[in-house]
Amino acid sequence: MQLEAHAPSVPPSDTIPKLGSTEDPALTPLTALTALDDAIENLGVPVPCRSYDPEVFFAESPADVEYAKSLCRTCPLVEACLAGAKERREPWGVWGGELFVQGVVVARKRPRGRPRKNPVTA
């Protein structure tokens, strides 16, 4: 049995990004999030996302999501937070008073399970 030589499986070193390289946008620092953190520090007043349990802003129940959105409406940085979340395409959670699902703003969270065929009368 004779073995054949193959090309190396490692790409040439000139195609591997250098450590600290920012050519890939996915590897760039989150400047919008850093700027938001700086703004929160400079504001000097408590903001809801730092004052309440973070789980509220990533809740599963529609009622908890609406509660988180209402908390955001009281924040002085709501516009900057929303703009940054859109820029970063946040995968999920409440940011700037809006619910994000897979990087897109969604009007409201649907409850788990299949919807009823007929509405329930109370």
UniProtKB/TrEMBL annotation:
Could you give one GO CC term from the UniProt record? cytoplasm
Which amino acids does the record list as binding [4Fe-4S] cluster? C49, C72, C75, C81
UniProt's post-translational modification comment states: The Fe-S cluster can be nitrosylated by nitric oxide (NO).
Q: Tell me the InterPro entries matching this sequence.
A: 4FE4S_WBL, HMGI/Y_DNA-bd_CS, Whib
Q: GO terms for biological process?
A: cell redox homeostasis; negative regulation of DNA-templated transcription
Residue span of the signal peptide, if any? none
Q: Name one Pfam family in it.
A: Whib
Primary location class: cytoplasm
Question: Where in the numbering of this chain does the 4Fe-4S Wbl-type domain appear?
Answer: 48-105
Q: Which keywords has UniProt assigned to this entry? A: 4Fe-4S, Cytoplasm, Disulfide bond, DNA-binding, Iron, Iron-sulfur, Metal-binding, Transcription, Transcription regulation
Chain positions covered by the region annotation Disordered: 1-24
Q: Where in the cell is it found?
A: Cytoplasm
Q: In which domain of life is the source organism classified?
A: Bacteria
GO molecular function terms noted in the UniProt entry: 4 iron, 4 sulfur cluster binding; dinitrosyl-iron complex binding; DNA binding; metal ion binding; protein-disulfide reductase [NAD(P)H] activity
* Cofactor, how bound (note): Binds 1 [4Fe-4S] cluster per subunit. Following nitrosylation of the [4Fe-4S] cluster binds 1 [4Fe-8(NO)] cluster per subunit.
CC cofactor = [4Fe-4S] cluster
Q: What does this gene product do?
A: Acts as a transcriptional regulator. Probably redox-responsive. The apo- but not holo-form probably binds DNA.
Protein family: Belongs to the WhiB family.
Record's protein name:
Transcriptional regulator WhiB
Say which species the protein is native to: Streptomyces luteogriseus
